[in-house]
Amino acid sequence: EADVNLRVVRRFVNSTIEEAKGEKVLKAVDPGQQFVKIINDKIIAMLGDKKTDLALKGPDTQSVILMLGLQGAGKTTAAHKLAAKLKKEGRRPLLVACDLVRPAAVEQLCVLGQKIDVPVYKDDAAVADAAGKASPKIAVRVAKGGLDYAKRNGLDPVIIDTAGRLQIDGDMMEELVAVKKEMNPVETILVADSMTGQNAVDIAKSFDEQLGLTGVILTKFDSDARGGAALSLKTITGKPILFIGTGEKTEDFEIFHPERIASRILGMGDIVSLVEKAQETVDAEEALKMQKKMQRNEFTLQDMLEQFQSVKKMGSMQSLLEMMPGMSGIDASQMDMSGMKRQEAIIQSMTYKERMNHLNFP
Prior knowledge:
Elements: H1 6-22, H2 31-47, E1 64-68, H3 75-88, E2 94-98, H4 105-115, E3 120-121, H5 124-130, H6 136-153, E4 158-162, H7 170-183, E5 187-193, H8 198-211, E6 215-219, H9 228-237, E7 241-245, E8 253-255, H10 258-265, H11 271-281, H12 284-295, H13 301-313, H14 317-323, H15 338-348, H16 352-356
Parallel strand pairs: 1-4, 1-5, 2-3, 2-4, 5-6, 6-7
Antiparallel strand pairs: 7-8
Helix pairs in contact: 1-2, 2-10, 3-4, 6-7, 8-9, 13-15
């Protein structure tokens, strides 16, 4: 049902049966729970056992990250999300607009870069020269220009957004091979759409054979809670999944933790990721102040509004449900959120003075 590759399914079923038959069931543990643990361990092993970090060089040397993928997989969006994450970690990334084929691809990257305050290198003359067609020589010119710009301005790493196609073709591959040969990237990352299921495996194999992938970013992972693409990709290609895109917003970008994803696939939630999201969104000192306010009965409508907004910053309701144990099967679109929206609208219609009068709070 999750569209997992048949070879992967057979390998998984056979190894699980073999281990389950020989497993001694502990007296304190229900056999069903013991079997779930075996399945959980097997899925973790298939997904890669532990997370894989980016192989970036030291801060004094430019590390080049080459982003590859077909059109529509979310490559440009993934590039900007990765840049935002690296910036948050203290680095000074540069985005290079090397997609000279897709209309407005350069403009899209510039807008996304401006949104996260990350510089974008572009070559308007190259866009005109390429005229919407693949050109190894022009693509290499832009990539080298981006690297020179990064060296002059002390930017690192250099994230190159390359051209894709609706399907794999010779012209696209020739351009990508030329860029990789010239730039010598530390990471050659395929951006794949989780929704394509087994097809993502065929795409990854084709790119790997000609370019030598070092990792994968899976986009639209929030639409594939069963993890079919993740299971198939890691097992068949052997390439680590580095990150997953879980929504449209910049912050909807997570490190791929095999043990947490295995829990989500089995519907057991992912409390660790949920807590991490909460920590990123809610300031610890502010939370303590809020707690003391409630104890003193001074909780205001302004505080309530800020609580609503904090919850919204954590991501979509569907992504939050997926992380809660026993809640992964619930469809968030069926939940009535109108009450919260109505209360938020009422509070926003008040003046600041009215919101801060805690004595009026019902």
